[in-house]
Amino acid sequence: MWRLFAFILPVIRVYLIGVKVLLYQLFHRSFTLPEQLGCRLRMKKLIWDQREGACRGFDSSNNRLLFTRFSLRREAGRFTSRNPETVQRHTADTTKDFDEQTVLRNIKDDLRNASTLPRQNGTVAIVTGGARGMGYETSRHLASLGTHVVIAGNEEEEGLRAVRRIQKESGHRKGTFARFRSEAAFSRTEKNSIIKFTLCSAGVMLVPERKTVDGFELHFGLNYLGHFLLTNLLLDVLSDSGHSGRFSRVVTVSSATHYGGRLDLNDLQGRSCYCSHGAYSQSKLALVLFTYHLQERLWARGDPITANVVDPGMVDTDLYQNLCSPAQLAKKPVAKLLFRTPAEGASTAIYVAASSELEGFGGLYLYNGHKKSSSASSYDKQLQEKLWTKSCAMVGL
Ligand SMILES: NC(=O)c1ccc[n+]([C@@H]2O[C@H](COP(=O)([O-])OP(=O)(O)OC[C@H]3O[C@@H](n4cnc5c(N)ncnc54)[C@H](OP(=O)(O)O)[C@@H]3O)[C@@H](O)[C@H]2O)c1
């Protein structure tokens, strides 16, 4: 009976969290990178639609509709954009009569001053799982900003294909492939580089009980422990590459399932009762605990490195390939309607890695481009410390 509960509860938790995320995605647009907003700066023509109380924007070069509307609301003496994708802030003085021209001018000013992601020339980013899905989108975007991306993956052919595509797109040699498995050798190879970013995106979900080559349960070993080891091995290089005002950045990719995660320090690898849903949520909770504790240690040492954790939402990638057949069938139409695309899913990680607004900010959990609270247990400092100590022992640090 106890075993049945231990097996079923994590499944129920994961599905309930999934429904909650989908409901959020139904009512909220995906976060848009400042860069994408920046490309709209060319837009000159704004048309006010009195009937709809909204504004339409056209690309002046080809008169193409760029976005449908800024829904402006009269709100506490201000007109505020309800569309986070476009302008965050524009105001009109409502003590005067409504002045359409003022509103349009404010919108244009905001668009002109909108920030873009800064160029990252001369930097190196290591992106685990960078050959596919969100990791690939992240690698691609960072390469377009001038970063040399090292894709750390498992499938060499796929990794090299991704590198070639990135090189073709960016027009430079902006990509290399390295095996994620041999972290030690890998970090030695990169020791002389100016590594500014480590993005921990590799992951598997709901895999039937399997082990990594080192004998760790796959979710725990790959999603968490591999990233724990890799990041620790790269800390000195990251520290040397950063300086005050331009910190190096570690970004880990967790998931909303961490809210349902339970960390069993006595049985981290689910030996007593294995449940793939529980194993996945646990590995994602471990990533959050690790990121927070890492940041504490970095502040204490005075290292110019920040560590943040992101939650990409539900994204249509190969990650769902291990769902059971009925769930696969149900997932297809839902994914079409409500899941984010890999590019949308990657946008928060890219933002956290490259935006100047987050310079110097660490120990944050970000979802859809905004700071959010993670689960209560993830802030438990004792648990963070214990997991860190245990992880060091497991990987021999
Ligand atoms: N998709 C979602 O809805 C969602 C939601 C929340 C969080 N996430 C998280 O986002 C991250 C990216 O997932 P995704 O959705 O982009 O999934 P994906 O398309 O399946 O990509 C997973 C990546 O992980 C790598 N990987 C898998 N097994 C590996 C192994 N044994 N060794 C090294 N690398 C391995 C893969 O590299 P190879 O191709 O080289 O095997 C692949 O690039 C994951 O950490 C996932 O948990 C995803």
UniProtKB/TrEMBL annotation:
Entry keyword annotation includes Oxidoreductase: yes
Annotated GO MF terms: oxidoreductase activity
InterPro entries referenced in this protein's UniProt entry, alphabetically: NAD(P)-bd_dom_sf (IPR036291), Sc_DH/Rdtase_CS (IPR020904), SDR_fam (IPR002347)
Protein keywords: Oxidoreductase
UniProt similarity note: Belongs to the short-chain dehydrogenases/reductases (SDR) family.
Protein name per its UniProtKB record: Dehydrogenase/reductase SDR family member on chromosome X
